[in-house]
C-alpha cells in the first residue's frame, strides 16, 4: 500500500512508519520543510497549504500531527496552539483528500481517550458522550474537523489513543528515571483509572484498521485499564524498585495546576469495544506483561 503519514517524526509516528516500511508498504511523510526527498509531501497546516498532487492515488492516510499535550505549561496561548494544531491540520487533510480525483480508501485520524473526560469508576466505550473539560473539547473539535473526508465517503476512523507505554517518551518516558531511582510513586489517592496501551499494540491496532471495515471512533487502549496505584506498583515491580507517594505540589509547580491535575488525577476508564468486536487481538493485554516487554525492548 501507499500510505501517507502526518506526524511521522513523532513518538508514535516514528514507530509506525518503521513498522509499515518493514512490511513493504511505501510510506509518504508529510513534512513542512523543503528537501525531504522523493517520499515526502510538503504541507503547512498553519498556512493552509498542501501539495495535493503528492497525495493523489495513495491508498491510505494516517494523520497523527499535533502539538504535544504535556510539553509546556498550559497558558492560554499554548492551549490555543494545542487545539488549532489539531483542527487546522485535520481540516486541511480532510478537505484535500475529499477533493482528490482518486481519494484514499481510508483516513485514520488521531484523537485521544481524553474525549471522555473524567469518567470516575465508570467504564466507557465508543458510544459514550464527550466529557466537559478542556481536553475533551479539543478532541471533539479535532474529530469534527475531519467532516469533509467523512462526507466524501472516505472510510474515516478516529484513533482515541490512551497512554502509550514506551520508554522512548510520553508519560512512561518521563516517569521512568524517577522510578529507576526509587522516587516514583502514585499521584493523589491513586484510585483514578489510567487507560494505557503498549506501543506494539498501538502500532498493530493502527495497521489493523487500515483494512478492517471500521469507521468512527475507535478506542486504542488495552482491555485492562489500571488505577494509578496499580500502575505505580506494576512499574515499581518492573524496575525492581520501591514506590512512594508523589505530593501534587511538585507537578503543579512544574506544569501548572490545570495540566498537572489533568494528566495525573483525571480518571479515564475506557474499553476497546470496537477493536474487540472487529476481531483485533492484543499482544500485551495485561499491564505487568506489557511493562516487562516495553522495558526489555
In DSSP terms (H or I, runs of 4 or more residues), the helix count works out at: 11
What fraction, in percent, of the residue positions are helical?
Answer: 25-40%
SS class: alpha/beta
Measured between the Cα atoms of the first and last residue, the distance is 28 Å
The tally of strands reads 14
* Fourth-level CATH superfamily of the domain at 2-165 and 197-221 and 270-283: NAD(P)-binding Rossmann-like Domain
Could you describe the 3D structure shown?
With 297 residues, the protein is of the alpha/beta class. The chain has a domain at 2-165 and 197-221 and 270-283: Rossmann fold. The chain contains eleven helices and 14 strands. Strands 4-3-2-1-5-6-7-12 form an eight-stranded mixed sheet, with helices on both faces. Strand 3 and strand 4 (49-50) form a beta hairpin. It is globular and about 60 Å long. The mean pLDDT is 95.
Summarize this, please?
Helices cover 39% and strands 19% of the residues. It is globular, with a radius of gyration of 19 Å. With 297 residues, the protein is an alpha/beta fold.
Fold topology:
Layout lengths: L1 E5 L4 H12 L3 E6 L8 E5 L4 E2 L9 E4 L12 H23 L7 E7 L21 H11 L2 H5 L3 E7 L1 E3 L4 H11 L4 E3 L5 E2 L1 E3 H11 L6 E5 L5 E2 H12 L4 E3 L2 H7 L1 H8 L8 H6 L8 H10 L1
Parallel strand pairs: 1-2, 1-5, 2-3, 5-6, 6-7, 7-12, 8-11, 9-14
Antiparallel strand pairs: 3-4, 10-13
Amino acid at each position: 500500500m501507499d500510505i501517507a503519514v502526518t506526524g511521522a517524526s513523532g513518538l508514535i509516528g516514528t514507530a509506525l512508519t518503521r513498522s509499515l516500511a518493514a512490511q513493504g508498504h511505501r510510506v509518504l511523510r508529510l513534512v513542512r520543510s523543503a528537501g525531504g526527498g522523493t517520499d515526502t509531501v510538503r504541507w503547512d497546516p498553519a498556512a493552509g497549504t498542501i501539495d495535493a498532487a503528492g497525495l493523489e492515488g495513495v491508498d491510505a492516510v494516517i494523520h497523527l500531527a499535533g502539538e504535544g499535550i504535556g510539553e509546556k505549561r498550559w497558558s492560554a496561548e499554548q492551549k490555543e496552539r494545542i487545539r488549532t494544531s489539531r483542527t487546522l491540520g485535520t481540516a486541511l487533510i480532510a478537505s484535500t483528500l475529499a477533493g482528490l480525483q482518486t481519494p484514499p480508501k481510508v483516513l485514520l485520524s488521531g484523537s485521544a481517550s481524553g474525549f471522555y473526560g473524567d469518567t470516575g469508576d465508570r467504564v466507557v466505550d465508543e458510544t459514550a458522550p464527550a466529557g466537559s473539560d478542556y481536553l475533551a473539547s479539543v478532541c471533539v473539535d479535532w474529530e469534527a474537523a475531519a467532516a469533509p473526508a467523512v462526507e466524501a465517503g472516505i472510510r474515516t476512523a478516529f484513533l482515541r489513543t490512551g497512554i502509550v507505554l514506551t520508554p522512548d517518551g510520553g508519560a512512561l518516558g518521563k516517569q521512568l528515571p524517577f522510578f529507576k531511582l526509587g522516587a516514583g510513586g502514585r499521584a493523589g489517592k491513586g484510585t483514578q483509572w489510567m487507560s494505557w496501551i503498549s506501543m506494539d499494540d498501538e502500532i498493530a491496532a493502527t495497521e489493523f484498521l487500515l483494512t478492517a471495515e471500521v469507521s468512527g471512533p475507535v478506542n486504542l487502549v488495552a482491555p485492562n485499564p489500571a488505577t494509578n496505584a496499580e500502575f505505580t506498583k506494576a512499574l515499581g515491580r518492573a524496575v525492581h524498585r520501591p514506590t512512594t507517594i508523589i505530593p501534587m505540589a511538585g507537578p503543579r509547580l512544574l506544569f501548572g495546576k490545570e495540566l498537572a491535575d489533568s494528566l495525573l488525577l483525571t480518571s479515564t476508564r475506557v474499553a476497546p469495544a470496537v477493536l474487540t468486536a472487529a476481531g483485533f487481538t492484543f499482544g500485551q493485554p495485561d499491564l505487568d506483561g506489557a511493562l516487562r516487554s516495553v522495558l526489555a525492548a
